[in-house]
Specification:
Layout (H helix, E strand, L loop, with lengths): L6 E2 L10 E2 L61 H5 L4 H12 L2 E7 L2 E6 L2 H9 L4 E2 L6 H4 L10 H4 L10 H16 L3 H19 L4 E3 L1 H5 L1 H10 L4 H16 L4 H21 L5 H7 L6 H32 L1 H9 L4 H11 L6 E6 L3 E3 L2 E3 L4 E4 L1 H5 L31 H18 L4 E2 L21 E3 L13
Parallel strand pairs: 4-10
Antiparallel strand pairs: 1-2, 3-4, 5-7, 6-12, 7-10, 8-9, 11-12
Helix pairs in contact: 7-9, 7-17, 9-10, 9-13, 10-11, 11-13, 13-14, 13-15, 13-17
């Protein structure tokens, strides 16, 4: 029998989205290529929120100077929108203010009417990433999906909805699905990848070098990772750029995110089916042949994880390293003076602005306490990587990090720690080194304070990074390999 669709309540533009669920509902795109959570199980009824933690009860009200005070003009939850923190001129200042008001675990707003806990303490973040028996990665445990707070067409779902993949599982199932990623990454020929990425970077710079100016985000940092990853999985440059457009929509968690997610997965599904017919030596074929991936959906979602997570994070990492060089005279002087190497610059960027400022999510499996806050079963907890890196418990002073210090949480921690740190650093380092080598006198073309950020509660990437440099002709190299 066909299941009835949930009845969506009409709302005014200033009201948060809510959905009244009449029985079990089907979510848009609930098929092989969907990221939306499946309907709630009858065995997991949504718990009601205790009076002690109901919205507004025992929570500090935002002061007039806090971004949350002006966020909705009295609508929504009255909490700080997470995207406002990520897009602020100085996110660390916003997180420090949140910490001063709440402690290391603060309530924030993901989209109008949808609250979550932002975990900003270094030790607290390690706790929720390491204790799978208390904090799950399974988005089906999110109680606000069951009680109608999150609408089925929410822009949050491509990032936060349950997927039948490594990112949506825990325990033995997670280990089964993680092994193909680890095995595939171990097969990467790093020397070959470095040469190929250097060639991609050189060709991109050659296209704008004679102008003497470029947007280092949209003409460089955004393109390098996708072309590099697309090549690893057997996609050509045109398909790589189509994937890039879809991913920008997905990570924005806005109204077009679900359409972007569907288009992104369709391109990859077509690639999987083509490789099943015509296998090659690319990563797609490696995943198809891995015994731990039991069906087409698992193969597809493994590739989705590798490309989507890898592209956006490496884009941010390249952009932030270049931005530091162009906006911080002391940093640039040390880098060009030889006292600070490219790897040290990359680490500095990870401390200051980790590629995923905030990472979704963990879901409490039962009532618990974290950082002095009562966490209810089914609550959503966001991993505040940027805030945790700035935790005064591990950073008692304002000085720069010591060269070689990689104790940051930019790659998260625990069983779900990023599996692709080595290829990510390889691509990022090559991109930064090539830009330094070919554009040695580049400088920012606008005041640093005019740099703005793509809207997202998760990643912090400049909208643009206009630069100027001495015009020069750089030959475009031919061939790939």
């Amino acid at each position: 029998m066909r299941r009835a669709r949930p009845h969506v309540v009409r709302r005014r533009p200033d009201q948060p989205r809510r959905v009244r669920v009449g029985g079990l509902g089907t979510y848009p795109g609930d098929h092989l290529m969907s990221s939306a959570p499946r309907p709630p199980s009858a065995s997991e009824p949504a718990a009601s929120e205790p009076a002690a933690v109901q919205r507004g009860a025992s929570e500090p009200a935002p002061p007039p100077q806090c971004p949350a005070h002006h966020a909705h003009g009295g609508g929504g939850t009255g909490l700080l929108p997470l995207s406002a923190a990520v897009g602020a001129p100085d996110p660390r200042a916003v997180y420090r203010q949140l910490r001063a008001e709440w402690g290391n675990v603060a309530k924030v707003e993901l989209e109008p009417g949808v609250p979550a806990w932002l975990v900003m303490g270094y030790r607290e973040l390690l706790t929720i990433t390491r204790q799978e028996q208390i904090y799950s990665r399974d988005g089906r445990k999110w109680r606000h999906m069951h009680d109608g707070v999150v609408a089925p067409d929410s822009g949050l779902l491509p990032m936060m909805g349950w997927r039948a993949s490594v990112i949506g599982s825990d325990g033995p199932e997670h280990r089964r699905l993680r092994k193909p990623l680890d095995d595939g990454i171990a097969k990467i020929d790093q020397r070959k990848v470095r040469r190929h990425v250097e060639q991609i970077c050189t060709d991109l710079i050659a296209k704008f070098s004679e102008r003497g100016s470029a947007d280092l985000v949209n003409e460089y940092a955004t393109i390098v990772p996708m072309l590099s990853l697309a090549s690893l999985f057997g996609l050509d440059a045109i398909e790589g750029r189509e994937l890039l457009d879809a991913l920008i929509a997905l990570f924005g968690s806005a109204d077009d995110s679900q359409a972007g997610n569907r288009h992104f997965e369709q391109i990859l599904l077509d690639t999987v089916r083509e490789r099943q017919r015509n296998p090659t030596d690319d990563m797609t074929t490696v995943f198809i042949n891995h015994p731990n991936l039991l069906n087409e959906a698992e193969r597809l979602q493994s590739i989705v994880v590798m490309i989507s997570a890898g592209n956006e994070t490496v884009t941010a990492w390249i952009a932030h390293t270049l931005r530091l060089m162009l906006t911080d005279p002391r940093f640039a002087a040390r880098l060009h003076g030889g006292r600070l190497g490219v790897d040290d610059a990359l680490d500095q960027a990870l401390w200051r602005d980790p590629p995923m400022n905030n990472m979704p999510a963990r879901y409490a499996l039962h009532d618990t306490e974290l950082g002095g806050r009562f966490i209810q079963r089914g609550d959503c907890l966001i991993l505040g990587h940027a805030a945790a890196n700035d935790d005064p418990a591990i950073r008692p002073d304002e000085g720069d990090e010591e060269p070689g210090n990689r104790a940051h949480l930019a790659f998260s921690a625990g069983p779900h720690v990023c599996p692709a740190q080595v290829p990510a650093r390889l691509i990022t380092r090559t991109a930064v080194h090539t830009a330094l080598n070919l554009l040695p006198d580049m400088k920012l073309a606008v005041p640093a304070e005019e740099v703005t950020w793509r809207p997202s509660p998760w990643t912090r990437i400049p909208v643009a990074l206009p630069a100027q440099f001495s015009a020069a002709r750089i030959p475009i190299r031919t061939g790939r390999g």
